[in-house]
Amino acid sequence: MGDYKKMWQDPNMDIEKHDILCAALPEQFGDIYLTQKNRPDAMNYFNYVVAEIHGARIMELEKYKKEGGSVVGTFCVFVPDEVILATKAIGVGLCSGSQFWIEDGEKVLPRNICPLVKAFAGAKIGLTCPYFQSCDMIVGETTCDAKKKAWEIMDEYMPVHVMELPQMKREKNIKEWEDEIKIFINRMEELTGNKVTVESLKKGIDVCNRKRRALKRLYDLRKNIPSPISGLDALLVSQVAFSDDPERFIEKTEELCDELEERVKELKPNGKKRIMVTGTPMALPNWKLHSIVEGLNAEIVVEETCTGTRYFENEVSTEGDTIDELVRNMAERYMDINCACFTPNEGRTEDIVKYAEEYNIDGVIYYNLSFCHTYAIEYEKIEKVLKEKDIPLLKIETDYSEEDTGQIKTRVEAFLEMI
Amino acid sequence: MNYIGIDIGSTASKVSVFKDDDLKLNIVMPTGWNSVDTSNKIKEELVKKGIDVEKSKVIATGYGRVSVPYAHKTITEITCHGKGAYYLAQEDLTVIDIGGQDTKIITVEDGNVSNFTMNDKCAAGTGRFMELMANTLNVSIDEMAQMALKGRNINITSMCTVFAESEVISLIGSGANREDIARGVVNSIIGRIKSLLNKHGVKGSLYLTGGLCELEPFIQLLSEEIGSEVKTGPLGRYAGSIGGALLAKNIEI
Questions:
Q1: In terms of DSSP bridges, do strands A298-304 and A393-398 run parallel, antiparallel, or are they unpaired?
Q2: Do B76 and A410 touch (CB under 8 A)?
């Protein structure tokens, strides 16, 4: 990574502490990613993004801000990027995937909440994430109690806009989400000074849909036996999707898919067990489970997670001539995401069963971040259905620390021996 | 041809040798602090007993399975314990394995592992917990189990080994009967196992493997608390190494 010390100073960073993080990441990335054999050439772009994660992209954000543009940070697949794009702002998914930030997070939050929430709070209050420092505002949602209450604490450090996500999927709830999207439009208009028009919103929808399509194409290619891309690499693409420039991301992902399409013609079965991961998100740089599984004789071919299918499944319809109609289309698409924050959430079980067939799965690993109660509770339902369908299932509950890696490896290895 | 299973556990290392279909030999020794040293010692021991390790098929298992340089393959202790317990019990069963650093419940159907549950990263309900508490009471594990039979239960409320230890120390300080404390300790382990079993479900008979397999009073209390007979035998501690040796038959070298 280049020398960005000057740039990081501007947004008020803790440079010394941030240096520790910047020193650890390349080593971790090198060990996990660059040791993989026979990677697609097009992954070079994504390697570059990681190498420059706190450099080149931040420079773009800073430049955009100097020109009068706005940057908003998000944490969740429910925040409608279409609106952010329609007001000519840049949306970035924020840092929340490393143990590095936990210590600072625990200064203001209880220890027994999910590591993702502790990490993003720590990244902000420890001043060790340049994305946070670049943001004019962050957009929260009410997907769980830990996040809901953490926004109040974050609000002391920077402007926060919270969207109230309904917890059921009745017509009245979809209408409520429409209202929330409209309130968000107003807030974004105030922040940026740019009015949302039918045209700009349609354009935003189009960009987001094309991004979804590119990711869907990548995932469809993983249905091949064997998959032309490792689970680790596919996960990285999904993670990068949250913070990269959307147009460039689409272009690079399509290039990757072109290459994979060629690869598929040459590949021969490799005897590796095909694994689906389902559960909680894996924010950058959380590669823990994937590196354990793919260090054994297995490949992860689909993630039914927020950093997987939940991010790209279903598009927003562009039909309609008014903002109201387009907002309705968006609300319908977002309320169709099968997150464990909803009750009931039968759609998720159906998705898992469907993917198990489509991706030719040998076994499912239920990935649960510690203290994520909604997903932990929902396990029971999923387990019952998968048992009926005779699909092997293993639950792994863990956080970002490395100390349980040996135990998890033993469990996954035994699971692979069993299926 | 000899088939050798080597189970390097966190506390004890176990070795089993089959000559064709006959179980010929079992060895147990402390793992110590260096698994590679232990596996070398095992090799010397085997050679002394006239077993040509070089001409045998060897599978290593247990938490130190990667530290056996002369093993042809590593297989997890879960698969090995399932195989070994099936060999010992000669029927489909649910295995309770109480190891030094973890406790596992393993379902064996048609001779193969069909499901398993392991305790989370925590020593509660493991052999290590038993050892630590016996140390605190200043008795051996055997003595503690004997004492427990005579005692009346005192609830040890802490799930965590470290806190449970301070709880036991306070109980000693408050003058509680040592037999009662011993019963409390044993019941707390059994409680953990019970909750793992409830979550996992039981199929077939119950079979105990691991280092506590010869601890009669413990097995008696375990059966009473669970409400059904827990079978075991003196070879229970070798289930992992026996399973490893049996699986070694099928590997190509």
A1: unpaired
A2: yes
Q: Which residue of B63, B121, B199 to mutate against A (max A Cβ within 10 Å)?
A: B121
In a domain, B158, yes or no: no
Report the interhelical angle of A43-51 vs A246-266 (nearest 10°).
140
Q: Is residue B226 part of a domain?
A: no
Q: What is the DSSP code string of A262-280? A: HHHHH-----PEEEEEEES
Interface of B with A in 95-114 (CB under 8 A): 102, 112-114
Contact A417 B75 (CB under 8 A): yes
* Chain A residues lying within 8 Å of B63, measured CB to CB: 406, 410
Among chain A residues, CA nearest to B199: A380
What does each of the 419 residues of chain A score in pLDDT, given as a tens digit? Answer: 567 777 776 667 888 888 888 888 889 999 999 999 999 999 999 999 999 988 999 999 999 999 999 999 999 999 999 999 999 999 999 879 999 999 999 999 999 999 999 999 999 999 999 999 899 999 999 999 999 999 999 999 999 999 999 999 999 999 999 999 999 999 999 999 999 999 999 999 999 999 999 999 999 999 999 999 999 999 999 999 999 999 999 999 999 999 999 999 999 999 999 999 999 999 999 999 999 999 999 999 999 999 999 999 999 999 999 999 999 999 999 999 999 999 999 999 999 999 999 999 999 999 999 999 999 999 999 999 999 999 999 999 999 999 889 889 999 999 999 99
Q: How many folded domains does chain B comprise?
A: 1
From its phi and psi, is residue B79 left (phi > 0), alpha (psi between -120 and 50) or beta?
alpha
Domain of B26, in residue numbers = 2-79+240-248
For residue A414, list chain B residues with Cβ-Cβ distance below 8 A. Answer: 76-79, 113, 116
Give the closest-approach CA distance of A414 to chain B in angstroms.
6
Q: For residue B51, tell me if it sits in a domain.
A: yes
Q: How many cross-chain Cβ pairs, A to B, lie less than 8 Å apart?
A: 33
* Residues across chain A: 419
- What is the biggest distance separating any 2 CA atoms in chain B, rounded to whole angstroms? 61
ipTM associated with this complex: 0.87
Decide if B198 touches A, using CB distance below 8 A.
no
- With contact defined as beta carbons under 8 Å apart, do B27 and B42 qualify? yes
DSSP secondary structure letter of residue A137: E
* Chosen from B78, B109, B119 to mutate, greatest number of chain A CBs within 10 A: B78
Residue B40 lies in a domain: yes
> What's B35's DSSP letter?
H
CB contact under 8 A, B79 and A407: no
Residues B38, B14: contact at Cβ < 8 Å? no
Nearest to B121 among A404, A413, A417 (CB): A404
Read off the pTM. 0.92
